[in-house]
Amino acid sequence: MKFKLLATSLAVSLALTGCATQQSENTQAAQQQQTTAADERVFSQEYLIEELDNGLRVMVVKTDYPDVVSLQIPVSVGSRNEVKEGKTGFAHFFEHMMFKGSKKFPQDEYTAIFKNAGVDNRAYTTNDYTNYHLNFSKQHLDKVLEIEADIFQNLTYTEEQFRTEALTVKGEYLKNNASPIRKLLSAVREEAFDTHTYKHTTMGFFEDIEAMPDQMAYGKEFFDKFYKPEYVSLVIVGDVDPKATMAMVKKHWGGWKKGNYVADIKAEPAQQAPKYVHEKNEGLPGHWLLVSYKGAAWEPAKKDRAALDLISQLYFSNNSDLYQELVVEKQIASQMFTYNPETKDPGLLHVFVKVENEDDLAKARDAINRTYAKARTELVDEQKLSDLKSNLKYSFINGLDSSQAIASTLARYMHFERDPEVINQLYKSADNITAQDIKAVANKYFVDDARTTVTMSALDKAPGFEQEASLNALVAKLDKAPEAPVFKVLDKTNSSPLIDVNFLFNTGAAADPKGKKGVAALTAAMLAQGGSQSTSYKEIQKALYPLAGSFGYQIDKEMLSFQGRIHKDNAETWYAIISEQLLNPGFRDDDFKRLKKEMIDGIKSGLKASNDEELGKEVLYSTLYKGHPYESYNYGDISDLEALTLDDVKAFYNTELTQSKLTLGLIGAVPKALKAEIKSDLATLPKGEQSRLSIPDAPELKGHHAKIVEKSAQSTAVSFGFPIDTIRSSEDWTALWLVRSYFGEHRSSNSYLYERIRQTRGMNYGDYAYIEYFPRGMFQTKPDANLGRSEQIFQIWLRPLRSNNDAHFATRTALFELDKLIKNGLTEKDFEATRNFLINYVPQLVASQNRQLGYALDSEFYNTESFVKYVTNKLEKLTLADVNRVIKDNLQTDNVQYVFITGDGEDMKKRLVSEQTSPMVYNTEKPAELVAEDKVIADYKLAIPAKNIEVMAVEKVFQ
Predict the structure, then answer these.
(1) CATH 3.30.1360.40 at 275-402+414-477, yes or no
(2) Pairing between strand 130-137 and 704-710?
(3) N or C: which end of the chain has fewer CB within 10 A?
(4) For 147, which DSSP code?
(5) In this predicted model, what pLDDT tens digit does every residue of 872-896 receive, in sequence order?
(6) Domain 716-901 is in which class?
(7) CATH of range 489-682; options 3.30.830.10, 3.40.50.970, 3.90.1800.10, 1.20.1070.10
(8) Would you say the pTM of this structure is higher than 0.90?
């Protein structure tokens, strides 16, 4: 368990009551706390903290990371505070509305300012708090504080904006509802709680979301109650002067008037009996089990909550005996994980298990019960407990690797007692827990009457759950000489105590032989998640755990990256373990079967069943590259994976993981002796001959085509695009990268498509454009490094729409806007604003140490200067004429491949073939010019011939 997991499982938003103290007392206390011995403090950064007269708490941390500042604004209001019946979801709703601006800074004006300044502006909502987080260059701090202060004090929006955003929230709910994990959490909370507001999730009840467009008056009431200074903290971390920063805050935020509202949150009565519910989910592959127990309240000085988190990790994490039994050894389960969300009041502690065979649901439940019984009856091994505490310390330290990481961590605490020293209090509480404490807490909380169980599958009922199992009854019973190396070394070692190592091989899924698609990914998994010749994977996990060391892999077409992180104190021990995995893999049959099963399940359940957005993007790539080395999914085709043998994996390892294809990347305070040892060890790999894969040009795309994937879905996801010749090393790449940013910056309201489709029309959750492969886009805001490719596509990603009609209209809108872009180009204003944004934004892409290393390795692949220097120099020299020429040279709409993921494929095909009109209907009045434009777009021709439209069942995708 990482310390931040322990911390966030405890860190819940506190409904602040205005307990202001004198500024001098605050400063004195902070100084006293900061003089505590360094070895007793896990969070040891120096800081300045003050509480203003109006109750606003402000914390400033100066860091050595140059130029970048992170501003986090946690507001102590979440779904917990939604006490009025029929009015759930408003905390999350106002996370959206806070981006509408104020009278002084209307949305268009402040977003233009932020875009020109390269401000990355985002937010999220939890059970107990809402956090607004902005990252930007330090010269913009005063302006950002001014704008945010005015919006918090003078938020302004129209009824049309309110009602339109309600549509977006509904679309987000439908998108999220595709996840089985979210469905399980929603079901268990509704069943487990009777009176407390934890009964509903952060999104709220669906019927309340549907009624939200008509709740503008209540929305104002909700905002006026909770968006007051005594509920708000400011966390400012970065390259700043603390005293000058505090003065800026007082100037802009000091006049905000304090409120007096405190929500009356009803306490949940003690549960009187175990509860169970089965959720039928048609079309869901496999079967899910969720076992949840009522937990402890937020009381960091007491042992209960910290002990519960320790129990969760000791008995249910992937280092636990139960995980080894169910997932690794018996392979009853394909997934198992524990989740203890942060809650101020007693919440739920969860264990999730996914099985393939319905009869294994009861077996998994019984195994979980036996494990809880074990926790109640044994004294945990003291060494295990000590190793866990070591892991907590180093995991927390390892996570504080940028100003943004420090700020976001602090934000998770500042909505409690609004004192960062609570971090050290949490660590101290956990560190003082004994084996006897673990047993006592287990007996206090893990009793039958505190349990709620949920099963979910396509079945009408789960077998073996007719009678509730009794936990109480269970408790009652009871190595070759090195040659001259030929690999490359990118040495960026420095004084950082964190060490990142990247073994980057120029090979990947494009090297999969015919009929063996997925062997590259399975080989990588066997090295990173399997045992070595001398040590089993279970033993490796046990050894790495107290070190808080990581070692994992990332697979793409032409790059296979093994990445690890460790604190310098533990570097030699860590390397001794992971080097055996990489250089002397055990290639055990049990590891092979387990990982192959997980990979197949990942395609079936993780991609095809649960992630329509990513599925659409991957199908687009596969279709555009038919017959090409890029055609197959990075993790393979199911039929190929099923036929793979351990010999196939060994053959790929021996032929592809060679010195000639390897670049070793090092950053951090790597000891000289260790550096020499790593180089010496890697020289034992086969030399090889080829330095990188030879990739042919993309297949020629002619005309308009559509692939429609039909599956059980409540919304329709859209991706479309075409191959381009421009890659990062091309002369015109930076100009095209600017065009992409203007048209569809990923997960950003700066996107033009975002503004036209999501913001103006409220159709979906976002709309973006790409000129480089960007996987996992729904989970992250910045692209991963080490995805270098010799071939790329221009792609537009429309996040799921509410219906086929909306998907048809949104696709037409995107094509309509793309045609306009190609015809008219950018304006001087848009060009300058986007260029300014990127110049300011690009340092954020390499803001952490491991990203600096990853991007440096990519620059080696593309043979360019360092990424920031390369891009910034190009941007500064660009002209509007350059950009508009590049648009016409690279973008077109004559040859386009569309992909739709939908619940009704034939209906989608009918619409496309007939060019059926797709009228847009709103729940509020819209401007006349927008309505007129909608009429044009509703009949805009996609011009896809019937013979070029294919409908296929999701079962056949990547099969």
Answers:
(1) no
(2) unpaired
(3) C
(4) H
(5) 999 999 999 999 999 999 999 999 9
(6) alpha beta
(7) 3.30.830.10
(8) no
